[in-house]
Amino acid sequence: MLASSGQRMIPKLKSFTIRRFTQPAISEQNEYTDVPNYPPILDTSLQGRKQRKRETLYENIKALKTVEEKQIALNMPRYYGWPCIMFKENSVPYNAMPFVQYYTKTYFKSIHKLPDTYNNTSTLTDTVLKDVKSHIEDCIAFENIGIERKIEICSDLRVEQQMEDLKTKEIVKQINRIIMNNITDKVPHILSTQVDYEPRHEAFWFMGGGAVPRKVINWRKQYPWLRKDRLNEAFDKPVQYIGSPMLTLRNNLPLRPIIPYNEAENPEFKVNEFEYVPESVGYVLEHRYGTNIPGFWPGDQDEFGLLSYHGRGHIINRKESFGAEDNLEALHCQAIKSSFGWLLAQANYQGFTTYNDITYPLTTQTVITNGQLLSFYVYQLNTITMNIDAVNTNPKHNICYGTKPMELYETIEDGKVKGLNEDTLKMLIQFYVNAPVERDHELKPYLGDEEQVVADIEEDERRNWLEATYKHIVSNRPKHVLMPEIYLWEKIYKIQHNTRFFEAKKRPFELGINPFKRRLDEHLPPYIPKVLRPYPKCRKKFETMYYPKI
Amino acid sequence: MKLSRVLYRQHIGFMFKKHWLVQGSRVPIDTGVEKYLKEKGIKVEDALEFIKEEPRTFDRISVIGAYEPPLPLNENHPEYKERPCLTLKSTNVLLEGINQAQVLTKTIIAEDQLPRRIEELAELPAPKAIHEGVKKAILSANVFDTEQKKLPKKKDKERPAYNFPRILGITDRRRNEILTNRLIQLIEKSSDIDITQNKYVINNVEHRSVFDKEEELIQFQDVSNILVTSNKPLKHDLDTSDVPFIEIPDLFPVKHTVTLPPEHFYEEKSRYPILPSVLKKYPHTTWLHFNETEVNNIYETPVTPAQILGRSLTHAFTEDVKDLHEPIHLNCIQTDGKRFHFGVFELNTLNVDGNDGTKNIWYCKNDQILYDSSRYFSGMPSLDNYNPKVYGYINAFYNC
To answer: Which residues in chain A are contacts of B67 at CB distance < 8 A?
Structure first.
């Protein structure tokens, strides 16, 4: 007993030893200046302090060097993921346009012909049109009546919707094949362009505007410091887009912007605020990690989208009472959501996030089709920040130009396509001929010089850990231990009616703990079994974790 | 949450049960109303008289549901036939592999031998940009695609009961689809426009061939993952002299129909998916994917390389179903995403009885490896030992 306490005392003795040498503080040569140099006056109010804290977070994320680390950093504050408002590509509720426009900050302009930037390729387009016209007619007739396909129907969607989407998919593949083969030797960018079938598109951002839900207000009412004047304080609502186009083209260079970047601040493009709570207009919340995926992992060279084809089978699934006008708006909504989602994910791979706005515009082209009707959309992404600090101060808006659905042909009679609409086909070819160009500014200002993706990191252990963690987070696989939950009986007998006051208070809500307020790194690191520790002696029991420090 | 848990906590259910018991055994109290009413001359009826009748029963309504249910598989099914048809599906393999396929299709094999024109075309060097494109396609299929679906369970032979964490990644089906479609796109982009305009490229079409062999009905049901068709039939100039053929083997003691399960529901006619009115209807090259997770032996043993080769031959045979005036040729490429098997099938006869007379010929070049490995190696995308020769063959198959 004595011996052991004696041993313990030895390290303590160190602190009692007297420091013999002291160093005088180095006196600065230029301690005095002619003009008084005051530190900045900081806003010390609660709001000011909170804002400063948020701004350091934005700066910290900006300073991270790799794409994957930034994506992990977006999810750092929540161990169980964010309660996201789900934007699904294939479901558009009634009258969704104002909501979608506000949540993507997009000004929509209806057009009949493509913007003027497309006009300089008209001679080339005409020659291509002449070449491919008959072949496109053939392939449409072939896909519609010339082939018997085995159709696999799953039971969770309407049969008509699935049939239409399946047929469209094949027609789109054929049309894409014919046009691509024809223009490969006429336009240089086509050879290096990659074609993806049904890629995975996901995008995540924060929206600071809109109304505060009743549930949040009620929760705030129980705390006196919130009840007083912070009941309606805005907060960041996480939004997640999920979609899967039928076919996409992407290249290593970005498309030319349609309008100059400074034009994005034009007050004409302002969209109205949508004041209602998303759940009240038909959107659902889902707990998940935020993901930004434009159809490939970071590190692929071809990271700018050119064109994406989407199906419109979901229109069949809408109620008849919605009417034709709302169906048209649903198509516009689908185009805005998918274009914004894809471009935002691409912007994230360039090192921008929902906290750090893009420094240059990005453009994409979208086609929504069912094989016969085609609607064309051109989208320019000007801004991606709409969190609580930016939603009212950021003057930039995104712009979407879109046409009505146009017929590619009238009917199919006796195995031949009748009445092919050349204008429609011409627009489609214009999308293909529109060449991406090299930009004269830096594309990745917020990424490192040497390290831009995790694969560039030299330290083996850190690279492997980050790679595995990133893939684990974006997979959104179900957790081994379920999320904390207040059971219904607890709500009735413990919260609403205090019938069990005699029991020991052990559950989080009885102890005043919010279990969802847990950071991603608040868990025990993986244990290293003794046999696996390095020989001869190693006291390190747990593996190192490399979560980004923000 | 289990409901019983709440009940146990509150014991409220027990209280209700008790309450019913107590209330159920109550003795009615005589209030004297009956006597009073009788005095007044009002008739009193017993309440039990009214509930004497049996409760009315209702017929069950048959709910149709959102979809028409499939017809039951019995004798009344429209496709039911008395005579069983021995069926080989694309998810099954032959027990004896290539040897059994030879017997079934009456084919002799020219191993490691392809038509001269294909060999000549395969020698032509491709530009560097094309090979870069192939490398991109391989990386896309194995590394950069973002599918995260459950892969087959990992097992350790030493401790088979141990459960590893389930790995998510690119499934073999998706990997093969991406790789083969990208390769076809690259070839078409680099080919002459006159060649590509006379061809169709179709994905996932089903076809079946039904034929008699030695008084047994046999059916091959197959899916062509990519089918290239052209506007005129494929022709190869083949010189059969001085080619060492592998003759049709004797399978004894195994019968040639082993592992072909008999089926009673089938169509008696062979079927080719493209209608005869279409101009570009002639099959040119067919691509077959070998997806490890989908193709199995019916006896659950792992699929052997010879069985994989057998698939190519039966697949090519299925594709060729027509009246024969002259030999029909067809190119076939099978791949599992890494290994490529090339074959050219020459159909000379549809009479597959016995081992004598005219025979079909299968020219093949097997086990061409496109690359050694492509994956995330230690957190970095990697592609080892890319073999440019394979692209030459694929290109030659398309352009011949």
So the answer is: 155, 159
**Is the per-residue pLDDT at A26 higher than 80?**
no
Tell me, what's the pLDDT at A29? 67
* Separation of alpha carbons A177 and B189, rounded Å: 9
pLDDT digits (tens, 9 = 90+) for A173-215: 999 999 999 999 999 999 999 999 999 999 999 999 988 999 9
DSSP-assigned states of every residue in A117-179:
GGGGGHHHHHHHHHHHHHHHHHHHHIIIIIB-------TTS-HHHHHHHHHHHHHHHHHHHHH
pLDDT of residue B244: 86
Q: Are B241 and B64 in contact (CB under 8 A)?
A: no
Residue B166's φ and ψ, nearest 5 degrees, are: -70, 130
Q: How confident is the model at residue A120 (pLDDT cuts 50, 70, 90)?
A: confident
pLDDT beneath 50: ranges in chain B: none
Residue in chain B lying closest to A485 (CA):
B1
Contact A197 B181 (CB under 8 A): yes
Is there a contact between A177 and B185 if contact means CB atoms under 8 Å apart? yes
Q: Give the pairing of strands A285-288 and B149-150.
A: unpaired
Q: Give CA–CA dist A260/B80, Å, rounded.
A: 68
Q: Which helix (H) or strand (E) holds B3?
A: helix B3-10
What gap in Å lies between CA A462 and CA A292, rounded to an integer? 22
Delimit the domains of chain A by residue range.
62-150+163-439
Please name the member of B148, B197, B206 whose beta carbon is closest to the beta carbon of A475: B148
Average pLDDT over every residue of A138-149: 90
The answer to whether the Cβ–Cβ distance between A147 and B1 falls below 8 Å is no
CA A317 to chain CA centroid, nearest Å? 26
Q: How many CA atoms lie within 13 A of A399 on its CB side?
A: 25
For chain A, give percent helix, strand, coil, nearest 5: 40, 15, 45
Task: Choose, out of A147, A174, A301, the residue to mutate when testing the contact with B (most B CBs < 10 Å).
Answer: A147
Amino acid at B8: Y
Of A339, A349, A302, nearest to A71 (Cα)? A349
The long-range contacts involving A415-418, CB below 8 angstroms and separated by at least 24 positions, are: A415/A141, A415/A145, A415/A146, A415/B277, A416/A137, A416/A141, A417/A137, A417/A138, A417/A140, A417/A141
Smallest Cβ–Cβ distance between B381 and the set A174, A299, A489 belongs to A299
pLDDT at A24 over 70: no
The reported pLDDT for the residue numbered A5 is: 43
Give the type of residue at B270.
Answer: S
The per-residue pLDDT for B52 is 83
Rounded to whole angstroms, the Cα distance separating A485 from A265 reads 45
pLDDT at A53: 95
**CA–CA separation, A75 and A79 (whole Å):** 8
Judge: B148–A471 Cβ closer than 8 Å, yes or no.
yes
Whole-number Å distance between alpha carbons of A229 and A233 = 8
Region A47-58 average pLDDT:
95
Report the pLDDT value the prediction gives residue A4, as an integer from 0 to 100. 43
- Domain positions in chain B are 80-399
The pLDDT tens digits for A238-279 are 999 999 999 999 999 999 999 999 999 999 999 999 989 999
Helix (H) or strand (E) segment spanning residue B226: strand B216-230
pLDDT tens string B16-69: 788 888 888 888 888 999 899 999 999 888 888 888 888 888 999 888 777 777
Name chain A contacts of B149, Cβ cutoff 8 Å: none
Which of A150, A161, A181 best probes binding to B when mutated, by most B CB atoms within 10 angstroms? A181
- Interface probe for A, chosen from B132, B143, B200 (most Cβ of A below 10 Å), is B200
Check residue A2 and give its pLDDT.
41
